């Protein structure tokens, strides 16, 4: 069973590595920096989670994550070199899948340490979002997370659902699937219909700085 | 007594959460990203401190910090939605208070672990300044910390005073108040009179890159 | 012998502190923020390494690192104030030396913890490159690491050589020198002849975003 989780984790790493490679291509980067950007995107969020939860960082003694990243990056580069352009949509799609996998895996890791529910949800957000935040900061983009569209909140919804299902003694696998699909659908809906939750009432002639 | 420190800590978290929300509004952000930016500002510095000192991260098993952030952000949003603009001065004021609380709480946490005095002072700077640095990096602003005005050095002054008073066996509360007020007054003075410590002698026709 | 390593470590800290000060000058920064930028450059990479390897952060109970930074920054400021400009070349040279020292010291620290070889190499990259990445992010530059020229890959080459030599039971000192010189020469060659490893085949009329 843990075997299965490991594969899901690797899948999350792969899609985020792809998303890092796509953004590197978008920003006309080149060379080995591309792999660094992909790696930071893929394992950055989980690394921060493990540091904060004070558990061994997941990739330090397990080389499968690094190999996954290298394979994912290599395939993406091959693909990009054959089709010189790609719609921005694919980047956001890869990001949505990574978000969903990572958030639930992060929540699961936290729930096993018996931290409060709010911390479980925060860990889901961190695992899911912070790799992408580091990616965007390094690539000097406005972090997707901080834009108006639903992003972190999809993780909060999915992780809260997951946490509640676990408390209701639902089987772990089922709870994970329910939580993960919630995140994915919410994020895809947000992308499709530009759904956001406006919190500020910006006036037209707002004195923005 | 520890109860009292906890309240001070929460107060620091609240003012930094407000400062994060204000900058999010300033940058025309929206949605849940505002709460993420506020949270990172409020608990980022202390999180880095706890990671480096290798003690449990303060908010992981204590939900009161997260609740404080949510309340502070909600109130700030309400306030901003009623008064569409606010002077930049308030942002800097909130920042100065957060700086002062956090720096002293950081110094206190470090001094209890019996690290060298220089490390105590560095921890004060990290706790006080690094949440704001992350905030500014994410919002793509030049970090206040790196501008010419007195910023980190106010923490150094206050934390050094605090450390020396503790070594002189002054009561903890008194030492904290003395250190905290030093930071606050220095920072407010720096804002009021644009005080900086120029270290470079920039010529007029400097070949800056 | 450990004495000698400590001195090398301090030398790495000094050159990175210089590189941080130079970039602060380049960006027309001033005040104490210069010291913060220099410090983050000098100890940022090693701090992240120690956090991830879950060992005590190297500078927390050893004040010699902080003193080294302060001296290096002070001397650099003096020098800059006498010669108002400096060629960008010196910044890159200081960076190359820091890269080489830090990468090997990072690999050595990791190899002693008996992590997999890939992790040893990653730790070399992190120790060598991440201080500079933080420096560039704070200074709002495109991280050198992400530009096309050989950068991270020099650390990978040097650290791989070092790791293999250690496995072949070569004396530690010799392995370190071989690895370190490899990094330095590769990086200098990359700077001199603009060597990069193009991974993307960018077309002329690429629809870059």
TrEMBL record, chains A, B, C:
The chain crosses the membrane at residues 6-24, 31-52, 64-82, 89-107, 119-138, 150-168, 174-193. It is found in: Cell membrane. This is Putative membrane protein YeiH. It is a multi-pass membrane protein. It comes from the Bacteria. InterPro entries: Gly_transporter (IPR005115). Residues 7-79, 93-164 form the Glycine transporter domain. One of its GO terms (cellular component) is plasma membrane. Its main location: membrane. Keywords: Cell membrane, Membrane, Transmembrane, Transmembrane helix. Belongs to the UPF0126 family.
């Amino acid at each position: 069973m843990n075997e299965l989780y490991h594969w899901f984790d690797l899948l999350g790493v792969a899609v985020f590595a792809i998303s890092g490679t796509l953004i590197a291509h978008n920003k006309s980067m080149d060379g080995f920096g591309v792999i660094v950007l992909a790696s930071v995107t893929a394992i950055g969020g989980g690394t921060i989670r493990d540091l904060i939860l004070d558990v061994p960082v997941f990739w330090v003694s397990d080389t499968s994550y690094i190999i996954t990243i290298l394979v994912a990056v290599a395939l993406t580069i091959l693909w990009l070199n054959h089709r010189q352009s790609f719609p921005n949509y694919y980047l956001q799609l890869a990001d949505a899948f990574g978000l969903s996998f990572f958030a639930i895996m992060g929540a699961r890791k936290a729930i096993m340490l018996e931290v409060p529910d709010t911390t479980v949800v925060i860990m889901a957000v961190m695992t899911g979002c912070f790799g992408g935040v580091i990616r965007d900061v390094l690539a000097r983009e406005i972090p997707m997370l901080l834009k108006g569209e639903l992003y972190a909140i999809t993780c909060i919804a999915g992780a809260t659902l997951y946490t509640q299902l676990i408390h209701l003694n639902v089987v772990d696998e089922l709870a994970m699937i329910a939580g993960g699909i919630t995140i994915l659908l919410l994020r895809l809906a947000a992308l499709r219909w530009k759904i956001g939750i406006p919190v500020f009432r910006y006036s037209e002639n707002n004195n923005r700085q």
